[in-house]
């Protein structure tokens, strides 16, 4: 009995020997040594500004009350806002990649290397939709990193991140790729990045830093985390090089990014919808609406169609469609495979150009506009009961949008935007399409029997 117990103990020790397991793990020391010099810490400063948010334009106030309002609405000075993030060098002459949200709104950007050299950076271009930005510093012979070939990453592969979490400069953390192609819509409902999900410890300050494979190549740019506490819980997301390469090229050449636009509102197909649409399984992007005269409309796509392949790429979930459409250059002709009334149909669609005001694919699935609003026309009976002649009613207000920040609520009736009276949804859409950015605009609306005037600011 004792002999048998000794044999079993020896076998267990052999199989579960921690030293044996450790011997199978990769050694990251050489990777960190070879790449750290090209990773940078980014410090930004947004200068103090006078806060005029929510003020009513003077010419909209009756003269008898104008002095009183101006006294109560004196601008208040805010303190400078400082923030930090990470980035990395991609060319010896000083081009640096980081996140859009790291440098957005910054008046000063300082880049610091591991050898303690510091440079003031200028913004070459930035793209909110992909959360990428290209900076430039005046320097030569800088250490650089190489971007990995797109679409080579696999789930389960080891990856390593370097950045400055919580200001702890040039910290390294490792993990594996948990998933590929994660759809995470922004607060505006836009969805252009098929994120890499990892369990690498990413924290505030890592944003914009590189995610490496074991060959020391950059496979992603760390962008965001999922956390209830603000710290890492093992759910981090990086922008893949398949997205970054094209965005970086356009930002360096043009300072902006042009994307394909289809002009549809979409949703996922669940089991019940698949059965009702005569599909053999839940798949694709269900078309809920098609914008008139849009590329989709001109290409023959109709409400009720289910797109299962676009530009030869499979569409498994609705979130896959914006990823594919957004990567296409405007005017690009793309083959489309879709199901209509249970039968497979093939079309060719020439995608349009996505402008700031376009919110349908490539875009959000909620159909909200530049202000983050979804509106509808009022019936004659509703107008009569409210005692108004025109206006549009708010059916939806997207969180963190310009409309939300102005205090608009579902059920409000918009009567005026700027100097334009709003009579119906067509007129509203035309006015919204022409609104300037970063400029306070009067918005007058009706709420619970009371007319209210505020300002709304459309951010870039």
UniProtKB/TrEMBL annotation:
Catalytic activity: Acts on substrates that are at least partially unfolded. The cleavage site P1 residue is normally between a pair of hydrophobic residues, such as Val-|-Val
Keywords: Hydrolase, Periplasm, Protease, Repeat, Serine protease, Signal, Stress response
BP GO annotations: proteolysis
Domain PDZ: 247-328, 348-417
Residues that span the membrane, as ranges: none
Compartments where located: Periplasm
One of the record's GO molecular function terms: serine-type endopeptidase activity
EC numbers on record: 3.4.21.107
Enzyme class: hydrolase
Segment forming the signal sequence: 1-23
Record CDD domains: cpPDZ1_DegP-like (cd10839)
Physiological role: Might be efficient in the degradation of transiently denatured and unfolded proteins which accumulate in the periplasm following stress conditions.
Family the entry assigns: Belongs to the peptidase S1C family.
Name of the protein this chain belongs to: Probable periplasmic serine endoprotease DegP-like
Organism: gamma proteobacterium HTCC2207
């Amino acid at each position: 009995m004792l002999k048998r117990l000794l044999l079993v103990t020896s076998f267990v020790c052999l199989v579960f020997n921690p030293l044996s397991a450790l011997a199978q793990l990769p050694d990251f020391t050489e990777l960190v040594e070879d790449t750290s010099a090209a990773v940078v810490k980014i410090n930004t400063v947004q200068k103090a500004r006078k806060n005029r948010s929510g003020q009513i334009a003077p010419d909209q106030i009756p003269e008898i009350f104008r002095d009183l309002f101006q006294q109560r609405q004196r601008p208040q000075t805010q303190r400078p806002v400082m923030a930090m993030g990470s980035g990395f060098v991609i060319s010896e002459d000083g081009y640096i990649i980081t996140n859009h949200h790291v440098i957005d709104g910054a008046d000063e950007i300082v880049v610091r290397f591991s050898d303690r050299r510091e440079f003031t950076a200028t913004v070459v271009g930035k793209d909110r939709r992909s959360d990428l930005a290209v900076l430039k510093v005046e320097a030569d012979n800088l250490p650089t990193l190489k971007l990995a070939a797109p679409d080579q990453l696999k789930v389960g592969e080891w990856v390593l991140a370097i950045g400055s979490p919580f200001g702890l400069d040039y910290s390294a953390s490792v993990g594996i790729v948990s998933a590929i192609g994660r759809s995470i819509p922004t607060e505006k409902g836009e969805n252009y990045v098929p994120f890499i999900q990892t369990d690498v410890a990413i924290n505030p300050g890592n944003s914009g830093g590189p995610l490496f494979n074991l060959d020391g190549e950059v496979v992603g740019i760390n962008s965001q985390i999922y956390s209830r506490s603000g710290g890492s819980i093992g759910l981090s997301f990086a922008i893949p090089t398949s997205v970054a390469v094209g965005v970086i090229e356009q930002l360096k050449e043009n300072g902006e990014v042009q994307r394909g636009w289809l002009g549809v509102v979409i949703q996922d197909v669940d089991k019940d919808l698949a059965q009702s649409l005569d599909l053999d399984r839940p798949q694709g992007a269900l078309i809920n609406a098609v914008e008139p005269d849009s590329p989709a409309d001109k290409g023959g796509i109709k409400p009720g169609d289910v797109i299962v392949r676009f530009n030869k790429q499979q569409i498994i979930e609705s979130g896959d469609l914006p990823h594919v459409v957004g990567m296409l250059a405007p005017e690009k002709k793309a083959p489309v495979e879709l199901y209509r009334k249970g039968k497979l149909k093939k079309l060719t669609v020439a995608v349009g150009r996505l402008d700031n005001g376009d919110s349908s694919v490539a875009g959000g699935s909620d159909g909200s506009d530049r202000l983050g609003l979804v509106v509808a026309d009022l019936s004659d009976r509703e107008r009569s009961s409210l005692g108004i002649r025109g206006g549009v009613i708010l059916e939806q207000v997207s969180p963190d949008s310009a409309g939300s920040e102005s205090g608009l609520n579902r059920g409000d009736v918009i009567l005026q935007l700027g100097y334009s009276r709003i009579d119906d949804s067509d007129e509203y859409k035309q006015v919204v399409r022409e609104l300037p950015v970063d400029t306070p605009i009067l918005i007058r609306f009706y709420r619970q029997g009371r007319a209210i005037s505020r300002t709304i600011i459309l951010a870039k």
